[in-house]
Design a protein that fits this description.
2 helices, alpha+beta, 33% strand, 4 strands, globular
Length: 75
């Protein structure tokens, strides 16, 4: 059953250093149809190419000057 609610939430705003490892681990746990809400302090433009190459759908929304939400869905 598909819902608009994310299956997981990952807030990487306080990660010390590069957050990609945390994001990659969370993506690996997603099954088809599951969604990850990524909360970041900037728009993660480099991540978009990775998501597209791996076949994920995603939608980005800036909710505050220093807060971006990227909803990622495994397809």
């Amino acid at each position: 059953m598909h819902t608009d609610e994310p299956t997981q939430v990952l807030d990487v705003r306080d990660v010390d250093g590069e957050p990609f490892g945390h994001i990659d681990d969370a993506l690996a746990e997603l099954s088809a149809g599951e969604r990850l809400l990524l909360v970041n302090g900037f728009e993660p433009v480099p991540l978009y190419d990775v998501l597209e190459r791996r076949g994920y759908d995603y939608e980005t929304e800036q909710v505050a000057p220093d807060e971006w939400h990227v909803t990622i869905e495994a397809v």
